[in-house]
Amino acid sequence: MGQLGGLVHVIMQAWDTMVVTLAMLMPATVDAKIFQRCDLAMKLEEAGLNSFKGYTIGGLLCMAHYESGFDTSFVDRNPDGSSAYGIFQLNSTWWCDSGVTPTQNLCHVECHELFNRHILDDIMCAKQIVSSQNGMNTWDSWSQHYSGHDLSEWLKGCHMYAKPYTTEINS
Hints:
By secondary structure, the chain is mainly alpha-helical.
């Protein structure tokens, strides 16, 4: 009976640990959001990103779609040990602090703060990236797939004032 009591005690401790861990993780997941295309377009327009540094909202939508599927909780682990976080896949080496890998943290934000539906911090960081020397080319997918293409389709059906320029600039 003594061994059985010890086993029950170990199982109960493991259960308590699992419950506490899940409880800590829930706020991050509960507040995450997968945006609809036009909802995200409106957020970007409200933040002043249309024609920002020569890029249209269509370009930002296209990039965010292929980077994260508009999912604020998306994380991509990279072979170098860094990770990319949130709707714009901001890399922990340069743009946010994961608390795990060395970082420049140029956006002065903790990576876990990029997981929620409140994307103003993500947008402000994206603005900083677009303003940097590499612009949208900071995202590998941009230079490989979208630069110089007609991205006006990304705004079709969205009722907003954004200018649907037919092509993006090449940076």
